Prior knowledge:
InterPro entries: Homeodomain-like_sf (IPR009057), HTH-type_TetR-like_transc_reg (IPR050109), HTH_TetR (IPR001647), KstR2_TetR_C (IPR041490), Tet_transcr_reg_TetR-rel_C_sf (IPR036271). This protein is mainly α.
Amino acid sequence: MDSSSTRRQTTRRKLFEAAVTLIAEQGFSSTTVDEIAERAGVAKGTVYYNFASKNELFEELLRHGIELLATSLQEAADASADRGGTRVDALDAMIRAGLDFIARYPALTQLYVAELWRTNRAWQSTLMVVRERAITVVEGVLREAVAGGELSEDIDIPLTASALFGMVLVAALDWQSYQPHRSIDDVHASLSRLLQGRVSGHP
Length: 203
């Protein structure tokens, strides 16, 4: 990779980080390109050099963030398999990876969850695409678990994948907003018990 490509990637990363933080703090409509440029430490023209509009910046922000999340989930599942773990172990590893990601990028997660409930945005189709990208990773592991006899063939794979994904998002945001004193290990352990079906107290 040449130096110009490296510089552009660095600039785009700064813009992503600045945009997601500002938009999470004050909303998309209230955030200006000037503010994004100032927070990123670049000229306003640099924003438009990299992105045609604020809408395009936001769409790319969503794509970039969910791609990072999907990659971390897949890597966690693969690492679990390499250690000889079951597919349920892989799902548990993905839960931990999701918590780690949200702890690292809380503003992006808050923004993503907030936008899920809006229906009047120009990027609604993009939001559906990036959501599907993350859900598909979870679905893949669930299908393998069913095929291997670890999970019942009766489970609704798409709905179960959405439920697991949503559980991690909501639990992590609640943890960070209302129970920040709890450790990530503690939160992971609680979600792991849900995954393993041990909430009732029976083995």
